[in-house]
């Protein structure tokens, strides 16, 4: 039985390996099917063979590994839009003004300052009298005006003109990529629409859509009471999973205080709810069949909370995970909890292999796994006799255990470490339990319009106290370590080090000590490799609307050329990833030189009579009123660059002129920042 203790851990490793390979390896469908047939035959052969052996060998284990590995590859392969013949990106249909797409709104996203955003599940393409069945997710941006508030909602079927656009990649290096984020949600293209172009054909809500509408009605009920703007925003996020009303300032405060995880319903919320329900229904265990009845009731209530929260993807995943853990807890064995965790992971990845790339999914599983593994070890370090101190120490051990698991990944994604996370969690975790219980009560009473004033005021004060505490902690910015650079290889090796430490705590021997030391050495190697890959010198024309910003990097220094001092937050990602230690500001010159290339900068001023000057690069800024054709005839540059300070009408005209002269044209608002690396011979 020892070999089966962590069977689902091993199955998950095999499955994940297959999934990851599918995303990074191209293979034809015919080869995939033939390979699958061979692996299945090998598995069946090894299975029947193992039944006849007195002493089983490793052949059946190898066959099982190959089968689960292939299952992961197979599922991921058919999840990828490029491998789906009916996906809209695979349709070779000429885009015309008469082409119409039909689909169903499946999800509302956080709006921008200019548009409401939704995800639409495509259903058909209409061209004249013919309609073709298609599928796939589309990002729908609906331009805001005074009439389209709550214009669309999940469950609506719509018909709109089909003029798809690519979701733009970030225009400056190392910035957050919304296009990559959307791709991880299987959204390949977007539509930018005026409300007048949208025709609502029907309203056919699914069960999930009805849950979303229920959540919206509950939110509207809450807005009828006297909660402050920030209080109601946090209330919606904490209990109902709706974060659209959280201000940027409030979000930053929670991030700096190390409490950002409570603003999105995740494993933390469901875990606290599970512990509360386990405690509440513990007397049921004394009844006949109570050990079976109790987890059923707990699981039903967890899913009821998921419905209350609109059945958003993150909530469904968390409840799915903790439904398995609820059964594991009932068995009262740590191995049961671990197997339940990995069993839920296994099934979720089979349902949707794209989950593996989603940050919330990764952090939730790592946090829960870390708590199961590390919390008992940490708690045993200190055994207080005082109940109050023991309670505080339990909370501290849970918080520390969770952080061990998520810190490397959090730094990789968010590039900061809140030094006061322990203080924050000591206050927030017990606070969160009270808020969850009282918040659900407030929602129910508000829905039936019998919410007493004293409960309303008390709950409002609790929310306000939480926000004030978070604000005070966030103000202690000297405890927030920001702009930490950590790449993917370093993150993976950090987890190897954590694994090595766990193995040594359990039993120290030569092999485990060697594994630990090799992991440390490997981290040093990948860190040196990461630094060696940073170019010593490069020039860059950043993109910024209505402004010109150029940079020249030399080792760890960056010279920034602009009309005024540049806001450091604009360059923060570049400074971190390029390991910049010193920043110098200069006025934009007329001529720059980099890597034996002469760069001419042309703006609105000056008379450019350039008979002797032959620059390789030409930068246009501030919409200069020049005859570009004549200028190109005179200097014949290798490339023309236009930054974000130019009028778009000028850009369009210059682009045509450059194309006619067969000179490459780079507009930073379209192709992103222009980067010029130093020639190797220099």
From TrEMBL:
Topology in the lipid bilayer: Multi-pass membrane protein
Main location: membrane
Keyword terms: Cell membrane, Membrane, Transmembrane, Transmembrane helix
Cellular location(s): Cell membrane
GO terms under cellular component: plasma membrane
Domain ComEC/Rec2-related protein: residue ranges: 238-506
Residues spanning the membrane: 7-25, 31-48, 60-80, 254-280, 292-308, 338-357, 363-382, 391-414, 426-455, 488-506, 512-530
Location of the DUF4131 domain: 31-194
UniProt xrefs under Pfam families: Competence, DUF4131
Keyword Repeat in record: no
Source taxon at top rank: Bacteria
InterPro entries on file: ComEC_N (IPR004477), Competence_DNA_uptake (IPR052159), DUF4131 (IPR025405)
Name recorded for this polypeptide: Competence protein ComEC
